[in-house]
């Protein structure tokens, strides 16, 4: 309120930088929606649990869908941060901060929702430590899994919005199940043997996005944004339709490798994960899609 509503204050209009005009939604994202949800709904439900903490997990399970509003907030965060870098040091913000007598500037508060969604899992883990095999423990475990799932989908979607060069519409590829970086070797039946030999030795670094309908191979690029932290983008290289894909779970000589092949092994992709656990997680997700 000390910032957003001041953007409509006629006395401060002359202090608002031009880059900020009509950009309230870019800067604040869906913060009003998050505030409304907590103020009108979630807080009241949690307060009911003060006397009966074993009911707390149900609040999270019941509100699983509502908590997805954080995904929208986090997806907008890069746009918000870019705008803040442009206008953050303006007199308008200094004036608002002075009036509010805040030690921290607005960007510290805009980070709060991102921190909040990750804090829930810590709080639920703490509660689980105190409730071994008592009433509500199973529900607490389910609530924790729910929150971890939300954090994972927020994290995945943050990577997904950084994909560049894909011609189609990413939203038509089904649910994003997994994403991560791998060493990849390719072996094509077509083309010169020379290509095949070269491809044998040096792996490509590829960032894979597994959707229910498609597997995307991208190349990760890190760009420095005007002296600030590096932002990653993923330039699209190729895709495989999941309906025509086969998988070989073990590759001789390396238990971290598996194969994905296309069109009856016309194209073979040897994929090396950073650990056996990671490889197994991916294989089980791919299996689920294929079956």
TrEMBL record:
Residues 1-157 form the DH domain. Residues 169-291 form the PH domain. SMART domains: PH, RhoGEF. One of its GO terms (molecular function) is guanyl-nucleotide exchange factor activity. Transmembrane segments: none annotated. The keyword Phosphoprotein applies. One of its GO terms (biological process) is intracellular signal transduction. It comes from the Eukaryota. Keywords: Guanine-nucleotide releasing factor, Phosphoprotein. The keyword Thylakoid does not apply. InterPro entries: DBL_dom_sf, DH_dom, GDS_CDC24_CS, PH-like_dom_sf, PH_domain, RhoGEF_Guanine_NuclExch_SF, SOS1_NGEF_PH. GO terms for cellular component: cytoplasm. This is MCF2L factor. It comes from Zosterops hypoxanthus. The lineage of its organism: Eukaryota, Metazoa, Chordata, Craniata, Vertebrata. The gene is Mcf2l_0.
């Amino acid at each position: 309120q000390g910032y957003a509503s001041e953007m409509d204050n006629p006395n401060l209009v002359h202090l608002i930088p031009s880059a900020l005009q009509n950009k309230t939604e870019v800067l604040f994202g869906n913060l009003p929606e998050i505030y409304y949800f907590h103020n009108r709904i979630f807080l009241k439900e949690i307060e009911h649990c003060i006397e009966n903490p074993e009911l707390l997990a149900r609040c999270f399970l019941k509100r699983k869908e509502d908590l997805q509003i954080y995904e929208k907030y986090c997806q907008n965060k890069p746009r918000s941060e870019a705008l803040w870098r442009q206008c953050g040091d303006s007199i308008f913000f200094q004036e608002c901060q002075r009036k509010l007598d805040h030690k921290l500037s607005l960007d510290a508060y805009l980070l709060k929702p991102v921190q909040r969604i990750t804090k829930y899992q810590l709080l639920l883990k703490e509660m689980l430590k105190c409730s071994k095999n008592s009433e509500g423990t199973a529900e607490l475990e389910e609530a924790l899994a729910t929150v971890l799932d939300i954090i994972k989908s927020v994290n995945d979607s943050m990577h997904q919005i950084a994909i560049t060069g894909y011609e189609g519409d990413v939203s038509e590829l089904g649910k994003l199940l997994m994403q991560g970086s791998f060493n990849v070797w390719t072996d094509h039946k077509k083309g010169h043997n020379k290509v095949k030999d070269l491809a044998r030795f040096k792996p490509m670094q590829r960032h894979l996005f597994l959707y229910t309908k498609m597997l995307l191979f991208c190349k990760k690029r890190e760009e420095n944004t005007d002296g600030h932290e590096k932002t990653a983008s993923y330039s699209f290289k190729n895709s495989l339709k999941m309906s025509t894909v086969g998988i070989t779970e073990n590759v001789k000589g390396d238990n971290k490798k598996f194969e994905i092949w296309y069109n009856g092994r016309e194209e073979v992709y040897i994929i090396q994960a950073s650990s056996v656990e990671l490889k197994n997680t991916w294989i089980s997700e791919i299996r689920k899609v294929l079956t």
